[in-house]
Every structure is written in C-alpha cells, then in structure tokens.
Amino acid sequence: MQNRVLLIEDDDELRELLARYLTNQGFTVREAANGRDGLALALGQDCDIVVLDIMLPDINGLDVLRELRGQTHLPVILLTARGDETDRIVGFEVGADDYIPKPCNPRELVARLQALLRRIAWDQKSDVDATRTYGDLRVEPGQRRIYQDDAPLELTATEYEVLQVLLAHAGSVVRKTDLMQWALGRRLEAYDRTLDMHISNLRKKLGNDDPPRIETVRGLGYSYRVPAV
Amino acid sequence: MQNRVLLIEDDDELRELLARYLTNQGFTVREAANGRDGLALALGQDCDIVVLDIMLPDINGLDVLRELRGQTHLPVILLTARGDETDRIVGFEVGADDYIPKPCNPRELVARLQALLRRIAWDQKSDVDATRTYGDLRVEPGQRRIYQDDAPLELTATEYEVLQVLLAHAGSVVRKTDLMQWALGRRLEAYDRTLDMHISNLRKKLGNDDPPRIETVRGLGYSYRVPAV
DNA sequence: AGGTCGTTGTAAAGGTTCGGTAAAGAAAAA
DNA sequence: TTTTTCTTTACCGAACCTTTACAACGACCT
Asked: How many Cα atoms sit within 13 Å of A42 on the Cβ side?
C-alpha cells in the first residue's frame, strides 16, 4: 500500500531531506512550507498521515493541529524542538498521535510513521452509519431505530443507545462502566441503578425470552447473545 | 471508559510510582515485575494497553513484545533507556506503538497512553477476544467464558480469573500468593482458605479427572497440566 | 511404628454484595 | 399543562465469596 504523507515544515532543507528519504521508503510525499497551506492540504483529504512542525512562520503548529482536530481524526506526528516538554504534552493534549524531537533521525521518523499507520490499519472500523443486522434485529443508525423482524421496536432515546452499543459488541461482554459512558455519556457512580432499569425495560420490549438475549455477567456487565445462525 | 493498563517493569520503586500515578489518573493498573509474568498477564487478564520496560531481569522486553505480537495487537508502549536509538527502532520494527525514554515524566506517559487509546478508541474490541486454547479448554476473554470441548463452563467471576491465570501459566507452578494477587486482587493472609475453595470448586466443574488437571504443589501452589492431545 | 504439626480437600453454613423490578419522584418534551 | 422519559428509592431474592469445621495427608521427628 502506498501511503501518503503530508509534510508541514518551513525549513526547506530539512523538509526536502525528509521528503526525499520518505519517498525512497515508498511513501508518497506532499509538502507544505507553512501552516496555512498545510492546513488546506490536510483538509483536502488526499493524505493518510501528517508530519507537522510546531514552529511555523505563520500559524503555530499547535493551532494547525487544533483546527485539524476540529474536523478530522487524521493521524498527526509533531516535530518539536528537542527537550521542549511543554510543547509535547500540550501537543498530546490537543490530539497529536506522536511527536519526534528535532533534529530527527529519518529512520526513526519512518519507524514511527509505520507504527502509527499499522495501528490505524488495524483499527480501521466499519462504517458507523451503515445498517447492521444481528439475527432478527436490524439497526438503522440513520433513523435511530432498531427493527425486530421488520417491525420497529418502540425504544426511547436512551434505550436505543444502550441496545445499539450492546449490539455493536454482540457476543462479548460490555462492562457496566463502559456501557454507561458510551450510551448514557456519563460515569457510573455507586448506587446508580439507571442502567439496570434500562436493561430491564429493554428486555421487556425485546420479549422476555429464555435464555435472555441480554445476558447478565455478574460483577461486570452485560452481553448480547449472538443468535445461532 | 475505564482503561486498564498492564505495567511490566522490574524496578519496584519506579513501578509503584507509576502505578500510583496512573491510578490517580483514572486507570486500572495491573503490575508485573518480570517478563514471564508480564507476558502471562498480558495474554491472560484483559487489559487495554501495555507499558513495557525493555530491560527486564528474565526475558528481554523486545522478546516479550515479539511473543505478544505473535498472538495479539494489544497496544504497547516501550520504556527504553534514554538515547538508545537502536532499541527504539528495533522496538518499532517488532511492533511497538510508542516508546518513552527513561527516566520518564509520568505526565508524558499519561499523555501518550491517552493519545494511543484515543487513536484506537474507535474500535473498542480491537482484540480483547484473542482466544487461547489449552488442550480441550478454550478461553474466550471477550465473552469472559471458558469452553471445554465447545461446551461453556459455568464459572463464577472469581473462578474464571483463577482458571484463566492457571492456564496462562499452563505447565508451570503458580504460587498461591501470586494466584491470590492476580486472580483475587488481594494479598494471601494466613488461614485464608478462599483460594483452596475456588480450586476445589473448579476441579469439580472441570470434572474430577485422575490425575487432576489442576495439580497441587504442596507448600507452593498449583499448576495446570495440559492434557496430552 | 506412632506422634505431632503444618498443609490441603471439601461440605456446609454465614454473610455480603449484586442485580431485577415495581413504584414513586424528577426532569424534559410536547 | 399533560405526557413521556429518565432517575431514584426500596425491597427481595439469588449468586457467590468467605469462613468454619473437620477429615485426610504428608513431612519430619522420636
């Protein structure tokens, strides 16, 4: 696979050196010498990963990153001055995936690029908006509805979220703390029985089968049973 | 989301320092002081991310990583001696996701952990479901179930943990104190027969074979013998 | 051999925590 | 407002971890 790297770096010499090296390593390289151009290219969609210098003549690299993160999750590796710990940590907090201290070893840059791309390739996940089917249930994220045998279930907003999360993980256990976070958007506090109630109501609406579709894993969470195919 | 970090580091002081810091930051931390235990825990316990020291007393950290990569894509951050570029690059080539030079700043470690977790957050089930097989037993961490000849064993949470730890160390003896710590999460006190009871119940559920699958090593602990296939 | 001591096996009892759910209350939507 | 949805409260039963008690075993000593 030919990976496309966008290199945002104002030092012409360094940029060209890296560009040459990356090209030799099999990457397709696109270059920008300042933040404005870089941002435009990055948003232009045709690259897989961005190498971004923090020190830029016009816009600060961190601002470029911030801007980028507002619109995309494109992987970004920061180039920082060696030893500047603040930049690095702020960089991570703004959403960088990695950083390399300057002056940098091209081999290390390639290694990091590949580590990050490998990770992403592995994580490439299915389309969130696609309709998914689990046995007799069908999730239609577009309409925020779930159908059972082509009849829509009358779910409340929260119930939809809970069931949808369970289905997305069908067959494996979803911890209560995660289910709470993902479906209700808040932390699970002690003595909070909200989730239990939603599960109870969901089971009722799904038809209280035996064995139950939503299985309790005591002390941990719940799991939606994969229907035998 | 409650993230679970496995910390593999032999320096007790550093390990405990980091463990405390990470716990304060909201992570669930599990610790190992050497490569062998670390590997077993990484394969066994479900954790979301591994922090791995390269210099370990028994197995080299890179070998631990190699072994791990043979079976899973669990994200791994390497702890390397500052300036040792070779280790870093080899680490990336073996499949590490990131590295931090020692001595490390805990804030930076957290920032990197979060950057990596954010990156993989899209895909929640990365590969927690790496199933492992030991003779006629099959561990399905995603479902938190263990199957014997394709029939699920009806294990309680603690029984699952205990058996799973024994299996991860299959063929070698697990000391009672370690088993207690890893499976029950607390120290083994005098006159505490809890563990013995769980073993007894497990044996019953596994079918009281002769010779027993879970072997007693008097004065030491237990060991799971993988039956000849 | 027999005796003592520490360790292990296990049945049964004890006690605690956890989850299910009805019903009431609070909050949000209509 | 009324209606719907979400959350809290409360009680119960079940699951299950732990303790207790006793029997069995092994190691070591005399």
From this structure: 30
- Strand D at less than 7 A from CB of B158: yes
CB of A50 closer than 8 Å to CB of A42: yes
**Which chain D positions have some atom within 7 A of a protein CB?**
4-10, 15-21, 26-27
Q: Each residue of A16-38: pLDDT tens digit?
A: 888 888 888 888 888 888 888 88
3-class DSSP assignment, residue A4: strand
Query: CB–CB of B50/B42 below 8 Å?
Result: yes
**What is the distance in angstroms measured between the alpha-carbon CA of A4 and the sugar C1' of C4?**
78
Residue B82 confidence class, pLDDT cut points 50, 70, 90 = low
pLDDT digits (tens, 9 = 90+) for A140-157: 988 899 999 989 999 999
Spatial CA neighbour of B104 closest among B126, B81, B86: B81
CB A142 within 8 A of CB A131: yes
Q: Is B111 exposed, middle or buried (0-12, 13-18, 19+ CB in 10 A)?
A: buried
Contact (CB<8Å) A97/B120? no
Closest CA to A214 of A164, A150, A177: A164
* DSSP summary character for residue A34: S
> What is the distance between the alpha carbons of residues B7 and B51, in angstroms, rounded to a whole number?
5
Whole-number Å distance between alpha carbons of A228 and B3: 31
CA-to-CA dists, residue A8 to A21, A35, B155, angstroms = 15, 7, 55
- As averages over each run of 10 residues, the pLDDT of chain A (229 residues) reads 84 86 87 86 82 85 81 82 68 79 77 80 59 91 90 95 94 92 89 97 90 93 83
- Inter-residue contact A7 to A18 (CB < 8 Å): yes
Assign A95 to helix, strand or coil. Answer: coil
pTM of the model: 0.72
d(CA A177, CA A220): 9
Here the tokens at position A16 are 């060209």
What pLDDT is stored for residue B229 in this prediction?
57
CA–CA dist A79, A53 (Å, integer): 4
Q: Does B161 touch chain A (CB under 8 A)?
A: no
Q: Is the pLDDT of residue B104 over 80?
A: no
As a whole number of angstroms, the distance between CA A145 and CA A138 comes to 8
Burial category of A12 from C-beta neighbours within 10 Å (exposed 0-12, middle 13-18, buried 19 and up): exposed
Of A92, A96, A217, the CB nearest to B144: A217
Residue B38, SS3 per DSSP: helix
B76-81 vs B49-53, strand pairing mode = parallel
